[in-house]
Design brief:
Blueprint: E1 2-6, H1 15-32, H2 36-46, H3 50-54, H4 71-74, H5 82-103, H6 105-126, H7 138-151, E2 156-163, E3 166-173, H8 174-194, H9 203-219, H10 234-237, E4 242-243
Antiparallel strand pairs: 1-2, 2-3, 3-4
Helix pairs in contact: 1-5, 1-6, 5-6, 5-7, 6-7, 6-9, 7-8, 7-9, 8-9
Subcellular location: Membrane
GO molecular function: serine-type endopeptidase activity
Domain Peptidase S54 rhomboid: 69-219
Length: 244
């Protein structure tokens, strides 16, 4: 499921979200100029390696400089490829503006970073001895989605759904869209943990970030319900699916 837009216009310009996207993009452009060997070193240094932070891996296994705790923050600005980068930034753009509008610019940045750290810790708890570097903003963005789930459950998400070679779109309530997304992360994480498999997706970071977003929203005073959404296009797209 690919979200295209929601029906809640932001009252303010999402300045903090734009800055976060710009910083992440600059880091990604820097990555594109690195050789494969240098990129591996970059990820090992600034990515989040659970086993290095927990001390379960021997220090000689990682001959790279850098604080073991730095990756909790720096990893959320790294991405492994174009699809990874564009997908994360698109989700941040779709769901972040309304959460930022509700929290304010400064509190949104604090909230984003806290959720990113919490997501990393969730993955460490689930797989404390992993030697794979975790990179990507998806944990922090999952926190934003968790906040959106609490604040705007009745919002409508215009969603692109690929079915084989046919693409359809459907207007889905946010509570259903985000609920399905969270359930997918939780189930996939549980299956991989049960099979003792280390995959290429940090599902527990996604699930942990989502839960952290719901909880930390209250700590930042954001549980107050926002104004009802203004549905600018709900009539236009109501009525189910259409083929593209």
């Amino acid at each position: 499921m690919i979200p295209l837009r929601d029906n809640i216009p932001s009252r303010t310009r999402p300045g903090a979200g734009i800055v976060l996207i710009a910083v992440t993009m600059m880091v990604f452009l820097y990555e594109l100029n690195l050789s494969p060997r240098d990129l591996e070193s970059f990820f090992m240094t600034y990515g989040l390696v659970p086993g290095r932070l927990t001390g379960l891996l021997h220090p000689s296994y990682y001959p790279f400089e850098g604080s073991r705790y730095l990756g909790l923050f720096s990893s959320m600005f790294l991405h492994a490829g174009w699809f990874h980068f564009l997908g994360n930034m698109w989700f941040l753009w779709i769901f972040g503006d309304n959460v930022e509008d509700h929290l304010g610019h400064r509190r949104f940045v604090i909230f984003y970073l806290i959720c990113g750290v919490a997501a990393g810790l969730a993955q460490i708890i689930a797989d404390p001895g992993s030697h794979l570097p975790m990179v990507g903003a998806s944990g922090a963005i999952a926190g934003v989605m968790g906040a959106y789930f609490v604040l705007f459950p009745r919002a409508k998400i215009l969603t692109l759904i690929p079915i084989f070679i046919i693409f359809t779109w459907l207007e889905i309530p946010a509570v259903i869209f985000l609920g399905i997304w969270f359930l997918m992360q939780f189930v996939n994480g549980a299956v991989m943990s049960a099979a003792n498999v280390q995959g290429g997706v940090a599902f527990w970071a996604h699930a942990g970030g989502f839960i952290a977003g719901m909880l930390f929203l209250g700590l930042l005073g954001g549980w107050r319900k926002p104004d009802p959404p203004v549905a600018k296009w709900s009539r236009q797209f109501s009525g189910g699916m259409r083929g593209l």
